[in-house]
Structures are given as C-alpha cells and as structure tokens.
Specification:
15% strand, alpha+beta, 36% helix, four-stranded antiparallel sheet
C-alpha cells in the first residue's frame, strides 16, 4: 500500500488516538527478571565432546567481543556497530545456547538479556508499526544499511520479524520468566501490517518518500519466516505453503525452485543451504521440506563428485567488496550462481560456507560428504579469538575472514541442537503444508518411538486414549522395522461436487474465533499422511483408530463449514479418507480392527505392535465413525454412494445383539491360541453416544441408548451418575468424565434423559470451582510422559476428583483442565459464568504449528504437552456449534433412498443389517432446544 501525502493529517489524528488508547502498553516498563532453568531446555542428552566444546567457545567469543554494553545489542559483523532484526534473533539464539552449554553463567545471561530487552522495548519503530530494517547497535538509532541515522527509517523486513519471533519463542520456553516481557514487546508491534493475503510483506521507502509494501520470501526462507509468525498466533497460510515451485535438474538431482524469479518479481529465487538448516534444527525437518533439504545437500555432494570442489553454499558476508553475496545452488535461471541482492554475478568469490558445513554435518550426522566438508572448516577460527571466519574462497583457497554474528550464532545454535540429542529447539511436530506437487516423491515424517499407543476408546481393555475416549492399557512396543508406506489413491471425483456444506450459519467467525479454528486445524495438517490419507490419533504415535478417524472426519466437516479450508482441500482429503477406509483389513472379515498403522494400514495393537489377525473391534469406535459418516452424507450428499459402500462391507451380526452394543477382544491362551470374546459395552457416556449413532443407521439398540435407571454418588452435594443399573454392567475401572457427554450434547443435543446426566456432571465441576477456586474440566487427556493417559475424573474408584491412569491407579498431582472440554462447555452454555471462566483459562493453550494442547495441570498451571485429533476436533466442532444457533451438529437426512436403505429393504443379507429401513432416532424441538430422541 502507498500512503498519499493528503492523508497525512488524518493519519496523525489516528496515530494520536491509538497512542492514547494504548498509552499504558506503550509506556510499559518491564522489571528485570531472573531466569529459572527449564528442564526441557537444560536436558543435555548428548554432551559436547572436548573438540566440540572448543568450537562452541570460539563461536561465543564473537559475541563477547562484539557486545555493545550501552544497548545490549551485538554487532552484526566484527567491529561494525549495526544490526538487523535477523541479527538480533541470531544473538538471542546464541545467548540461549551459550547458557545451556555453560559458556556463560546465569548472572551474565540475565544481565545481557535484561539490557537487550530494555533497549528493544524502547526502539523507535518504522511508522510506529514495526522495527526498522536496521539499527545502530551502539546507539539503537534507526539507520540505513550504511549505518547513517535516518529519522524515518527505511522500512521493515517481514522475514527478519519471523526470525526474531522464532527466537522469542525459544526464550519464553527456556526462560519463562521473560514471557510477559516478550508478549508486551510483540503486542506493541503492529505485526498484522506485515501480513496480507496470507503472505509476508515487508515495507520499503520509495525515492518520493512513500511507503511501498512488498511481498517477501521465496521457497525455504518464506516458510521459515511464516513459522515464526505462527508461533505467536499470526497465520500466513500462503507463505507456509511450498507453492509455487518447480523442479529443476542440477547435477542429476531434481531441485525445488521458487518460480517467482528476479525477472518477474525483482526478487531473487535463490536456493541456499541455510533456510533448510534453520528449519531442521529449530522445527525438525519433515515431509516435503525434509525431502528438499536432502536434495539440496545431495546436489552439493554431486558437484564435488564431478569437479572435486568441496561445496557448501549459502549467503555470507565477505571480507571485500561487495561485502555480501548469495552463494547458491540455483538463482534466477543459473546453476551455482554467486550474486548480490541486485542479481549481479561475482563467481570469483564463491566460497565454502562455515555455517552451512556445520549445519549439514549435524543435521545429517551419518552423511560422509557432510563430514568431509565439515572437516574443511571446523578449525577456521580467528587467531585472536574473534570467532569463526565465514568460509573459504573456492578460487583462491584463502579464508573469507569476515566475522559475523550470523555464522557464529548459527554454529552455537547447531551445537546446542546436537547437545539435545538432535532434538529440534522449537517443535518436532511441524510439517509443511503443500499440495505435494510437483514433488510426488517427498518423504514423510519420521516415525516416533514413544512408548505409548494410538489413542482410542475401549470399554474393557485398551490403549492410551484421547480426550473423547474411554480408558485403555498401554503395552510396550517391540522393536520393528519401519513399516512400508502404502499409497492409497483417493476415490474418483464424486458427482456434482458442492462448493460447501448445506449448513446455514448464523454468522461468520470472529477474528479471535478464526484464530482458534486455524490453530486447531493445524493438528490435521501436521499429522496428515499424504500417502495413506489417514491422520494419527495423537501426534507422537503413528496409529489410528476408527474413533480417531471419526474425529478427523468431524473436523474436516467443521473446517469446511467454517471456511478454514477450501472446497478443493475438503474434497481431496475426504475422498482420500474414504478410499483408505475401504482398504482397512477387517477383523474376522466383519468389522474394522481396534487399531491400524497409519502408514501401512495394517492392524496393530495398542502398543503399535503388528497384529496381523487384528485384535477385535470396538462398538464405541464404530459409533464414532458411523456418526461422522452419517453427517457427511447429510451435509455433503455427493459422497453418499461412497459412504454407503464402506458401511455395507461390514457385518453387524455380533456388534448389535439383543438391542445392546457389544465389542470384541482377543486373548492369547497358554497353548498359543488366540480366542475372541464378545461382551456388552458399559462405559458410561460413551455407550449412550455410540448407541445414538447406530440408531441413525436404523439399528435397534434401545438397551444401550440413553435411558433407564442410573447409579449416582454424591459429589459436591450433587448426584453424579456413575453407571447404569443393569445386570450386564461391569463396574471394573468405572469413572465419570466429561468427554462423552459434551460430545453427545454437541452432536445430538440434550434430550431430557441425557440432560439429567449432563447437568449434574457440569454442576459438580462448577461447585468445586466455587468451593476451592480450582478450575475444573474433568476429562480423559493424553500427555507425553508416564502414565501417558490421565483420567481426571469427577468420580472414579469410589473417590471424588481423583486422577487415574489406565491401570486404575491414582496419579498424584496429575489432574488436568481439559482444553477441549472447556471449549465445549462454553459452546453449550455460553451464558454460564463458570463456562466463561473455563474458556478464558484455556484459549491460548495452542502451538500454532501443532494445534491445541491437551490442557494444563490443576496444581501448577503448567501446560500438559500432548496433541490429539480428539481435542482439536472437539474445538472445531465447538466453534461450529456456536455458529449454528446451538443446533445439534448431526443433521437429519432428507432421503431414505440411498444404497444403505435400499439394501435393508431388500431383506436379510447375512450381514446383520437392521430389520426395517427406518431410522431409530429422530430430531425434535421444544422450548429447551433441539435434540435427537429414540423412536422413528
């Protein structure tokens, strides 16, 4: 956008208004703080060798010698007091690494960081919006790139903003006492001005003194910069996507190249090493980016194989004019180009980059070429302890003696990454968002070796379970080779594709609600298997259950209805999922097994161990997927034939027996035989939910549907249900949590019988809060450490407010406040003061790259690390429920002529289909609202 001079007076008045509005924030003077160690950041699992300690000390000396005590900043290059926001980000990363590698003590760290943040907080901003592109490191004045003071400045760089936001995230994670200070700084910046149409935009000043916004970033750096924004809740979906790019063959390797070159955009589309190295050590290389990085390293090896010239190219300062060059694999149509920012060639100054060689060595520790090029630079240190030189000139073989914060900061960051056992510094669950074209051969994410299982509901025995599912038993995975990934082709395009669902929403999402919805959808982007079409039930385990796939399908519908994803993405993902469901091996040829490997589609047990014959089925899982498939048909009728084909392949002879739902388990006898046992489901809340779903398809399951007499116990003076009164009820490991009841309420509404269970469950939690001031959202949640699954009960094992593991044992101080349940209660009871309190306590519990966390611990308030499809699906469904005028999410069908109902009308098929082609539940409305009830 170009600002016009006639508007300046108006803009001044607007600025004065904003200054008044945000006066308190702008004059926020933070109190210096002292950091406390963060266990995750101080957990050095692979200590540096003596030789590596020498590398680290040498790199840290650069920052010691180039420190500016008046500002707390450091020089971007040796002895030159200038610095960009990117340079400042480098310093923060180096300072954090130096602390955990014991290169500096706590007092020095705090002194340096307090001074840095004090100065940063007081920086004059370009147009009072964002930091200028460059500052004098000694005085903190806005300057140009020649370090000449400028009152107005020269604009901002969105990529530099992304870099420092990533560094801010590391600091607030590793040193949480600085979190509020950092939040205050980010809040002062008008970050949204650097975002437009889902992309990153920098600002530059034209010769006539007007401001021009210019799109920034090309493949590699654009995605990296956008990740920094996402960490602070700012979405740039086009920037985080890989497109537009093409593959260019260089030295026999297909290299991904941004199609926006210098000729068409006046910006370089260079391919360099550093962007992939940064992405790898900070976020963890996954998906397409992992494949791209491997290609970029391989092509440099092949150049060495062909020419004998060691190659490690990236951008670097040099020690002579023109002082900064991009040494590239490819740029603007030329292979191995060495250019300035203005695309002027300087091939005589191509160099082996020290920081690139360090990066490839530690990202690919088993790569012989990476070791070879590293050996050439590992001792390239300044003799006066000034740090590492930038590299070695290829032509002259002489050192490039430029000393920079970029080179030495990245070396420190890389060595810290190594010391943490090659664990990414920010997030290991990030993934690129791409259509996958044209890189069909992109590698997928590396499987996790977590000692837990795919989460799913199980009424008698089971796995580590997600938020909406009953308890389980964790088994230890055996060592197995990586499964062969199965490529599933989506079903053919459906007839008459619709641009959206047929839902009529009362209003669009607010800006804040959209941010939450986009954050929740991130889970389904980060954990999507592009070959199989499946989603992992939990982020740390490559497994799925039918319950989890039902969560995914419900999330897909919600995301499309909320316009979070495009019709094209919805259609592609839906057709892929439906195709995968047709490929799942069935237990005993009847029904889907309890768990599947999301890569191979083969049955697994709850420890992820292969179970070639399957391990039974869960009626609760089936209910979850049947509810989601039914709603898909209703709201997106173009998929009806494909959905009915799936469910008509299954046999229901043993899952529905005498009006109740039953599940199958397998057990190994002493003689080695596996025996199958089928028993009624009895898990409170889940049974009622699944039964209602079966009724949608015409099954008579009145014995499992909500109704009859329930046992209760007194909690906080409220009679809370604990189970049905019936002969087949199994009281072993019974407990009451919120998950199934809020899911039922969102999808089916609260009929009078369910309301009589739902209301005391909510009321007991509200009463506990009033009595103890402890936020309570009791649920089953998953975490990343033992016991992996925590049931924060309202009542369980005869006790109130006890936290239980899957084994029924108490988990001291293990109670969590569930993020998903908090969102659901607020959607269902928006006027209730307690539900409002719950929402306020959980809305910021998300990682913009991974989705919403499971919740936080009641006793400490610390975030419970764990990401699941159930939690993020329920959040999306809760947001959709708000926009539907609190109507049940499951909508009634408008036709009974689909293949499913036709097959029933034809009579007994030997598959246990319903006897008559009528639904056993219907949607009705009264003064209390709309809800589904039993009956045709």
């Amino acid at each position: 956008m170009i600002y016009k001079p006639p508007q300046q007076k108006l803009l001044r008045w607007i600025a004065l208004f904003l200054i008044g509005t945000f006066l308190q924030l702008l004059f926020y003077i933070p109190t210096p703080v002292l950091s406390k160690n963060s266990n995750s950041c101080s957990n050095i699992t692979a200590p540096l060798t003596p030789e590596e300690q020498t590398y680290a000390r040498a790199a840290w000396q650069y920052f010691v010698k180039n420190y500016q005590p008046a500002t707390g900043f450091t020089n971007s290059t040796g002895g030159y007091p200038s610095g960009t926001l990117w340079d400042m980000g480098n310093y923060l990363m180096a300072l954090n690494a130096a602390r955990w590698l014991n290169l500096t003590d706590q007092a020095d760290f705090d002194s340096r960081l307090n001074k840095f943040l004090t100065t940063l907080n007081g920086l004059k901003l370009f147009e009072d919006a964002l930091p200028n592109k460059v500052y004098n490191a000694a005085t903190a004045q806005m300057v140009d790139y020649g370090n000449n003071p400028l009152e107005r400045g020269i604009g901002w760089s969105a990529l530099d903003v992304g870099r420092i936001l990533a560094a801010f995230d590391v600091i607030r994670t590793c040193h949480p006492q600085y979190n509020d200070w950092l939040k205050g700084i980010v809040a002062k910046w008008q970050v949204a001005r650097s975002l437009k149409d889902g992309q990153l935009f920098g600002a530059t000043v034209l010769p006539d003194n007007k401001t021009l916004l210019v799109q920034e970033g090309r493949l590699g750096y654009e995605e990296y910069g956008a990740r920094g924004y996402q960490l602070w809740g700012f979405s740039a979906p086009k920037a985080i996507a890989l497109e537009p790019f093409k593959l260019v063959e260089i030295n026999g390797v297909q290299i991904p190249v941004d199609t926006r070159d210098f000729k068409s955009t006046n910006a370089n589309n260079y391919v360099v090493s550093e962007s992939y190295i940064l992405d790898g050590i900070e976020f963890g290389l996954q998906g397409d980016l992992a494949d791209f990085a491997a290609r970029v390293l391989d092509v440099q090896k092949r150049r060495f194989d062909t020419t004998g010239q060691l190659t490690a190219v990236t951008e670097d300062n040099i020690d002579q004019a023109p002082y900064f060059l991009y040494n590239t694999v490819y740029a603007n149509g030329a292979n191995w180009a060495t250019i300035t920012d203005a695309n002027q060639p300087y091939p005589q100054f191509r160099s082996i980059s020290t920081k690139a060689a360090f990066g490839w060595r530690y990202l690919f520790p088993d790569n012989a070429y990476a070791q070879k090029v590293f050996d050439a630079v590992k001792d390239l240190r300044s003799p006066d302890d000034g740090g590492y030189y930038a590299g070695i000139y290829e032509e002259s073989k002489q050192p490039n003696k430029a000393l920079t914060g970029n080179t030495n900061g990245l070396i420190l960051e890389i060595l810290y990454y190594k010391s943490k056992g090659n664990h990414p510094l920010i997030a290991s669950t990030s993934a690129s968002v791409s259509t996958g074209k044209p890189s069909e051969n992109a590698s997928s994410a590396t499987p996790s070796n977590q000692p837990n299982s795919p989460d799913k509901p199980s009424e008698n025995t089971s796995p580590a379970t997600p938020a909406n599912q009953p308890n389980a038993t964790v088994t230890t995975p055996i060592a197995t080779s990586k499964p062969t990934e199965v490529a599933v082709a989506p079903i053919p395009p459906v007839d008459s594709p619709q641009p959206s669902s047929n839902l009529k929403l009362d209003r669009p999402l607010t800006v804040i609600e959209r941010r939450y919805a986009e954050a929740a959808w991130r889970y389904f982007q980060a954990n999507y298997h592009s070959k199989s079409g499946l989603i992992d039930d939990r982020s740390d385990f490559k497994g799925a259950t039918l319950w989890g796939l039902g969560d995914y399908l419900a999330a897909l519908h919600a995301a499309r209805s909320l316009d979070i994803i495009t019709p094209k993405e919805f259609d592609q993902r839906t057709r892929h999922l439906l195709a995968a469901l047709t490929k799942l091996p069935l237990f005993a040829g009847e029904l889907p097994s309890r768990g599947y490997d999301t890569r191979s589609l083969q049955p697994v047990d709850y420890g992820g161990n292969p179970a070639p014959e399957g391990n039974g089925w869960s009626a609760l899982d089936l209910g979850r997927i049947l509810a989601a498939l039914y709603n898909l048909k209703t709201c997106h009728p173009q998929y009806t034939a494909a959905v009915d084909k799936i469910v008509l392949d299954w046999s229901y002879l043993r899952v529905v027996r005498e009006g109740i739902l039953s599940s199958a388990t397998t057990a190994k006898e002493q003689d080695g035989r596996y025996l199958t046992r089928v028993n009624p489901v009895t898990r409170l809340g889940y049974e009622e939910y699944a039964a209602r779903a079966f009724q949608l398809w015409g099954f008579n399951v009145d014995g499992s549907a909500v109704g009859g007499e329930y046992q209760t116990t007194l909690v906080e003076g409220v009679k809370v249900p604990i189970g049905r009164r019936r002969k087949d009820a199994n009281s072993k490991n019974q407990y009451t949590v919120s998950n199934p009841f809020v899911l039922y309420a969102l999808e089916f509404g609260l009929d009078p019988q369910m309301r009589s269970l739902f209301e005391p469950i909510f009321q007991a939690q509200a009463e506990r809060y009033r009595r103890t001031d402890t936020l309570t959202a009791s649920a089953t949640t998953l975490i990343d450490r033992k016991p992996y699954t925590v049931h924060s009960t309202i009542t369980g094992q005869g006790e109130s407010w006890v936290a239980l593991g899957d084994d029924g044992q108490s988990v001291p101080k293990g109670r969590l406040v569930s993020t998903a349940v908090a969102f659901a209660y607020h959607a269902l009871l928006p006027e209730n003061k307690y539900s409002q309190q719950l929402l306020q306590g959980t809305t910021d519990l998300y990682n913009p790259l991974a989705g919403f966390y499971e919740g936080f611990y009641e006793t400490t308030g610390k975030t419970a690390v764990g990401f699941t499809s159930s939690t993020n699906s329920m959040i999306l469904q809760s947001l959709l429920y708000k926009l539907m005028n609190r109507q049940p999410l499951i909508r009634p069908t408008t036709t009974m002529k689909s293949p499913w109902w036709q097959a029933i009308a034809q009579g007994d098929s030997g598959r246990g289909l319903p006897n008559t082609a009528i639904q056993r539940t219907r949607l009705m409305s009264d003064t209390s609202g709309s809800y589904w009830v039993s009956g045709s």
